[in-house]
Amino acid sequence: MDTIDPQERIQDPDARLWGMLAHLLTLLGYVIGLGHFLPPLIIYLSKKDENEFIADQARESLNFQITVLLLALVCLPFICIGIGIVMLILLGIFQLVMVIVAGIQAHDGKRFRYPLTLRLVS
């Protein structure tokens, strides 16, 4: 695979749209189960051979959602002492803000990298 230049701006409007959707459609997870994982996974599997930018952003989005799930699982035992609820609320706010920022960056044609994300899908 070619090396990715993080400073490169993508000009293809379709690639930018799909890159943005790979991030923003994860917000469906607040409405339906598995909504955080399915959109970027479906976009990645269906578009990975069409455009490298789409594949990169869908993969990044999927990695972030997996990381958030793992962090939420770590927070669950702390619900017993009350701090887990605060941690889950803060994690939800962090997720919401990062997904919106990522969607905007992808729509602008910039490759976005989520902070503190495990790169499990490569």
CA radius of gyration:
15 Å
Number of strands: 0
Count of DSSP H/I helices:
4
Major sheet attributes: none
The coarse silhouette is elongated
Which range best describes the helical content: under 10%, 10-25%, 25-40%, 40-55%, 55-70% or over 70%? 55-70%
Count of all domains: 1
**Stretches where pLDDT falls below 50 for ≥5 residues?**
none
SSE succession? HHHH
Residue-averaged pLDDT: 92
User: Structural class of the secondary structure composition?
Assistant: mainly alpha
Strand content: under 5%
Topology:
Blueprint: H1 13-24, H2 38-47, H3 52-75, H4 83-107
Helix pairs in contact: 1-2, 1-3, 1-4, 2-3, 3-4
Structure description:
This protein has 122 residues and is mainly alpha-helical. The chain has one domain. Helices cover 58% and strands 0% of the residues. It is built from four helices and no strands. It has helices at 13-24, 38-47, 52-75, 83-107. Helix 1 (13-24) packs parallel to helix 3 and helix 1 (13-24) runs antiparallel to helix 4 (83-107). It is elongated and about 50 Å long. The model has no long low-confidence stretch (mean pLDDT 92).
Summarize the structure.
With 122 residues, the chain is mainly alpha-helical.
List keywords for this structure.
122 residues; 0% strand
